[in-house]
Amino acid sequence: xxxxxxxxxxxxxxxxxxxxxxxxxxxxxxxxxxxxxxxxxxxxxxxxxxxxxxxxxxxxxxxxxxxxxxxxxxxxxxxxxxxxxxxxxxxxxxxxxxxxxxxxxxxxxxxxxxxxxxxxxxxxxxxxxxxxxxx
Length: 135
Description:
Largest sheet: none
Low-confidence stretches: 130-135
Number of strands: 0
Distance between the termini: 31 Å
Structural class: mainly alpha
Strand content: under 5%
């Protein structure tokens, strides 16, 4: 399935004449292309709760704080401290230091917050992996 231009996507998402199954198909097409935010738009419009839950798990595994938070809000879910810690650990492992910091703040975990704050203060060339971790 071909992805839509931004204007066609907007029009489709604002239309009352599109079926739930068509919205889900577009959402899946965007998901396959790695465009999670667009996928969320379609799944939310379709009321595709199962797909939104799967995306939330995917975002947790990828350490994507902002999309995870957006999905939690859509699903009217309040993640536990353990869920935020898991997301933070995944974000840290992926080098997404700010996402890790925000997740650890949500988990109210001072030791992990301090650990990430120290990493954020290091110049990029001093970090052990040698790559810029400040995405």
